[in-house]
UniProtKB/TrEMBL annotation, chain A:
<protein>
    <recommendedName>
        <fullName>Xaa-Pro dipeptidase</fullName>
    </recommendedName>
</protein>
TrEMBL record, chain B:
<dbReference type="InterPro" id="IPR001663">
    <property type="entry name" value="Rng_hydr_dOase-A"/>
</dbReference>
<keyword id="KW-0560">Oxidoreductase</keyword>
<dbReference type="Pfam" id="PF00848">
    <property type="entry name" value="Ring_hydroxyl_A"/>
</dbReference>
<dbReference type="Pfam" id="PF00355">
    <property type="entry name" value="Rieske"/>
</dbReference>
<dbReference type="GO" id="GO:0005506">
    <property type="term" value="F:iron ion binding"/>
</dbReference>
<keyword id="KW-0411">Iron-sulfur</keyword>
<keyword id="KW-0001">2Fe-2S</keyword>
<keyword id="KW-0223">Dioxygenase</keyword>
<keyword id="KW-0479">Metal-binding</keyword>
Amino acid sequence: MTDRLLPAGFAELEPFAGTWCLATETERYARRMASSMEEMRTFYDAFFPRLEEAVAHCDTFPLDALPEDARRLLQLVYSLVMVSMSIEIFHQPKAVDAADAEIERVREPVP
Amino acid sequence: MARWPKPAEGSWTEHYPEIGTGLISFEDSVSPEFYELEREAIFRRAWLNVGRVEQLPRKGSYFTKEVRVARTSVVVVRDGGGGVRAFFNVCRHRGNKLVWDEFPGEETSGFCRQFTCKYHGWRYGLDGALNFVQQEGEFFDLDKEDFGLVPVHCEVWAGFIFVNLAREPEQSLHDFLGPMVTALDGYPFDKMTEWYVFRADNRSNWKIFADAFQEYYHVPALHPQQVPIEVRTPGSGFECAHFQLDGPHRVVSTGGARRWTLPPEYMYPIERATRSGLVGPWESPEIGEPPPGLNPGRIDPWGIDNFQIFPNLEILIYRGWYLLYRYWPTSHNTHHFEAMLCFQPATTVQERVEHEVAAVVFKEFALQDAGMLTGTQTALESGVLDRFPLNDQEVLVRHFHKVVADWVADYQKNHAEV
């Protein structure tokens, strides 16, 4: 039990938690750029059908008092949003025609 | 495609005859000599937005702003009386940069009771007064009264902090902003305090990037992915609903059916699942009666207003949130880009996720705009072409370059007379 990262109802997503529970957009974007489409597709297919459920679970707690496992589940939601850009929209890791452009997120709300 | 009525003259461009309809030059974006002129003619004359009052929550809160194009740094502070002041970020003793953290060239922010110079320990109050000189008795007739920090003209409009680097500004901030912009007075920017802040260093002239955000003509070609491929119409255009000019400032409004009222196939699955996406959350908390300056063309259904406030500020007002850009020149062919998405604070995870989706989608398409820049800049610098056609959807690009040219010409004229 001690090494469970996500809420009990989301046990099948545990294999992704080590990779995709990332606190900042900078980390999530870097992970996306370092991932293959196959890796992202596997994560997306496993999690997307449960996205709304995951948000609903987190929303059983106050936003500013999420338990650790729900906080990590929210980070996983953020990573799914990140990965969906590659899977749904661009069909490649980086935005099409973004060339070598980089835009850094330097401030964001927590969690 | 929706057709929006144009002014009686037949086009938005001809509605403003002073801007003409001819070919235009982008020499102003490739010339190092022109950049040298912009330093004085624009960035040391115009009011510049350096931040928001929310960045100064209490007495002693401060932030620094590097204005490299004007070769200066400014420190902005909430003083003891609760007012907002700005000073040149220079110690009066030996000219050292007064406020910095790890590296002198990087901006910083924080809270203090006084500013202490790292070099010899001179201390200044939040009002800029020189309060302490180390070994004061070793100096010769030094009157601390005469050595306070050098003030920078600083005024606040709608919570936006502006500075003017001129010795004496030619206009007050209110007069500079003019009636079109100040008609936004009362818009609750102060409620939109949940910020996603971005920055980038781009390899193009500052105006070239601003150009990409003041016309939507490029959207179908550069951003085809904004429409899911199943419902994408090859060859479709983009027409804006309203354009308006006022002095050096501009606004464009979009209109038409809101994305989320379209059939579901017009949205990506992540948008449908999170109720947010390309144009932000589908719903935001009510903000009451809008000020008269919002949606100045009274477009229905209204999309967004995109205000271009001269010289380098852009505020895009969506339903219940806003997006802000600043373009800070760093050389004739580079600039520092700042962007902020500002939402009313989320009270639930659902709302927070909606904001995150909007912030992620924003970056994707801004990366496409930024990706173009190096190519535009280098191609312009090749000098193969020197005259370019602009259409009516690009009227704001035409106006922007005209205003820049006018400000430079005006400065040169006055300078020559002096």
